[in-house]
Sequence to fold (135 residues):
Amino acid sequence: MKSFTKLSLVGLLAVSALAFAAETLTVDKLVQKREDLDGKTVTVSGVVSNFSAKTSKAGNKYTTFTLKGSNTTLSAYTQGHIEKAPKNGDEVEITGIFRKEKVVNPDFTVKNEVDFTAKKDTKNGIKIVKRKDDK
Fold:
């Protein structure tokens, strides 16, 4: 009976972890839980601001924007340019790896960033939920 109870508990924990991982978080909730979610794959929703598609000095294309919640913001990053890019004011969901702090180089550190670069065997990416101009 004890092994059945242990197996049940392990199964319940596994299902709970999967449910939490699949949950779409708000920006505020993600930042609030940043210690627990550091390095984890997350899905987060918010409003785009400061959208920028650039090319580095080394010739690498990348896209960044700020994802706004009700009370706080986080940084969003992806390698490359987005084919159907969001605009400032659009509501989006992004799925990617959350880092509470990423040191890009000795002079540049980013806090609270989701890297949603698409990678094989991941669900990383962006989904536009609502365009600002949609009524």
